[in-house]
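Support reply, case 0932

Customer input (verbatim):
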Amino acid sequence: MTSAKLVGSANKALAILTSFTLDKLERGVSELSRELGLHKATVHHILKDLERWAFVQKDEKTQKYRLGMRLLELGDLVRRNSDLIQNSQPFLDGLSRKTGGTVTLRILEKDSLLVLAKAESVHNLKITYDVGSRLPCNFGASGKLLLAFLPVGEFRRLARMGKIRRLTPRTVVNPRELEQEFERIRRRGYAFSSEQAISGARGVAAPIRDRLGNVVAALGFSMPVSLLPQNKVPEITREVLETAAAISARLGYPPQLNEERMDKGARDDGRRAAAR
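Our regenerated output:
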């Protein structure tokens, strides 16, 4: 983003705050100045203001800044006030306890997959994600599911922009093949992934809908392949679908499980997984 686009102190402050990422936890005045196209004095002045409000804090050894505790407090307020997260978290916890897998709530936001909430497996061998972390938009079952319910033009835009990334040797990246898979996902109501996002991991995802029927998030289940063999795929798929339907019902959408279609699809997924 260039300085020509950063008009006003608020926009500049927000550009600085959003420049912090998991890969760039600490930022210096000079690098922010270069990256954002702002004068060093401007960046320094804004960082000092943000520091006074505890939005950033300075490391006296490195002379660089990191995000401050005030943002953590505000983030907690957002989570507490989010109907989606509040209504989902007890179900995430329950599904994780019942199945032993890691369960996540994810949305597509700014061309990537954002983890809103999670319930982590208690197993020593497990898949884990950080709340607030971002993943490629086609990451695993949750990514495929949310892409499947996008307008086709929006998916093709993401593909043209190079957002569909190869994550393992088994990742499907061909847009035409993906669009065919999206049709299957919409028809049966869930997505399945076997080592397409993380080698040695499998996952299932089901849509969470609001009262109007819009898909607003994905309920994702992840487990190491060694703990999720072929014969367990149908059982886990049913649990994920039932939990997603329960969350959707809490949001005002009536449950509409097609059990016959779900069972057939889960059996097919199990056979595909076993053949790989």
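We compared this against your earlier run and they match. Two observations from our side: The beta strands are 56-59, 64-67, 102-109, 112-119, 134-136, 191-194, 201-209, 215-224. Residues 3-70 form a domain with the Arc Repressor Mutant, subunit A fold (CATH 1.10.10.10). Please reopen the case if you see a mismatch on your end.
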